[in-house]
Specification:
single chain, 427 residues, alpha/beta, FAD/NAD(P)-binding domain, 5-stranded mixed beta sheet, 5-stranded parallel beta sheet, 26 strands, 28% helix, 29% strand, globular
Length: 427
């Protein structure tokens, strides 16, 4: 095993972890994308901190008794120890390098941490193409480029899969008779990209992107230099921007039905929005909640007719049209209030529920780019038919670009077109 770390089993836990002055433990699994994303970071940090802290890896499935005792239910999970006591944060999922370093630093005297930070060596990597974003558009582009023997590195601040990975079921993606779980569809795509040779930098922090010089700096240590860049960073749920939203986000207010609907079994919820995603998510939430009140600003829903008909036929779903939210309130655990205004009368009243879901559109993820590029009136990137942006050598694919429809299939098409066009330049 590379790096200053040791693989142990649960029988060695006392000796190699609890009896050590300082220790860190990585509970990992095989065939686990988040574990793979963590592995190189963990190894690198073991070389930096390994002289002071004992770095240990434990195969979670092979040591179930210990994992259960420590309440480790997912992979990877990283635990930190000082004098045999668990300290710091319990990290899991898409773990970032900075999160690891923060907890490792806290185990050491401040001066020693500073010495380690000064010893960090910068790394430079050259490649043909960098893809920013690991959703369907980026993954498809990666597959085509790798198959054309174009060296490709994919950079993502999260784990590969994009927004699709949070979608409950995908029923309109070609090739599958049965509806596919969004996470698994994303997993198939990322595994295919990996099998074809795409290199991943997942769950990283992007420090700087220089589109003009085609460089991307990640995790404060690696600068990737490319000949071409594909921006496939997608979009994120649009917030309402009203009082109480920031305070209760993730604590009463959700933007992901797949993530949170299960917590509202036999509960009442409010859903804000009336487009396709809002109504489709309402139908999913209906499998759990006892009642859903849909609040929408217009007289009619904007979703497709089929989805509308299903929602209107669902006895659990009620509609409050021509109303807009004005404030969120929280009274206790699973006790939320939302002040709404009747847009026709101006009257305001408060609706009560156990939780609130917000689906009012998306915002393009363009914050990391300082260069000026041609955007449409909604802030999405303009491209030509070859997916080229207004910057030389910079392409865009997927939900980040101007387009009539944002679907998985259109994202895949964008990635295909961008990759084929780029591949010709490397022929």
């Amino acid at each position: 095993m590379a790096g200053k770390m040791k693989e142990i089993n649960q029988d060695q836990y006392q000796q190699e972890v609890l009896d050590k002055k300082l220790a860190v433990v990585d509970f990992y699994s095989t065939e686990c994308p988040p574990c793979e994303a963590l592995a190189s970071k963990y190894e690198d940090l073991s070389n930096l901190y390994g002289g002071d802290i004992s770095f240990v890896k434990i195969f979670r499935q092979g040591n179930k008794e210990l994992a259960q005792k420590l309440d480790v239910s997912g992979s990877p999970t990283v635990l930190f120890y000082k004098d045999g006591e668990m300290v710091g944060d319990k990290l899991s999922g898409g773990i970032k390098r900075s999160e690891l370093m923060k907890n490792l630093d806290e185990l050491l005297p401040e001066q020693r941490s500073k010495e380690i930070h000064k010893s960090i060596k910068q790394k430079e990597t050259e490649t043909d193409v960098v893809i920013l974003g690991g959703g369907p558009a980026g993954l498809t582009a990666g597959i085509y480029l790798a198959q054309a023997h174009v060296r490709t590195i994919m950079v993502d601040t999260a784990l590969p899969g994009g927004y699709v990975a949070t979608t409950h079921l995908v029923s309109n993606y070609p090739g599958f008779i049965e509806a596919q779980n969004g996470y698994m569809l994303s997993h198939y795509m990322s595994e295919q990209a990996k099998a074809n040779g795409v290199e991943f930098r997942a769950a990283v922090e992007v420090n700087k992107v220089d589109l003009t010089n085609k460089t991307v700096k990640i995790d404060g240590v690696e600068t990737i230099k490319a000949k071409k860049i594909i921006i496939a960073t997608g979009s994120r749920p649009r917030p309402l921007g009203i009082p109480g939203e920031k305070e209760y986000q993730g604590n009463g207010i959700s933007y992901c039905a797949t993530c949170d609907a299960k917590y509202f079994q036999d509960k009442e919820v409010i859903l804000v929005g009336g487009g396709n995603s809002a109504i489709e998510e309402a139908l999913f939430i209906s499998k759990f909640a006892s009642k859903i009140t849909i609040v929408h600003q217009f007289d009619e829903l904007q979703a497709n007719k089929v989805a509308q008909e299903k929602a209107k036929a669902d006895p659990k779903i009620e509609f409050k049209l021509s109303h807009e939210p004005r404030e969120f309130k929280k009274y206790g655990n699973m006790d939320m209030g939302m002040v709404v205004e009747d847009l026709k009368t101006g009257e305001r009243k408060e609706l009560r529920s156990h939780g609130i879901f917000v689906f009012v559109g998306f915002i393009p993820n363009l914050e990391n780019f300082s260069e000026k590029m041609d955007l449409d009136q909604w802030g999405y990137l303009k491209t030509n038919d070859e997916m080229m942006t207004s910057l030389d050598g910079v392409y865009a694919a997927g939900d980040i670009r101007t387009k009539a429809y944002r679907q998985i299939t259109t994202a895949v098409a964008d990635g295909t077109i961008a990759a084929i066009g780029i591949s010709k330049d490397f022929a």
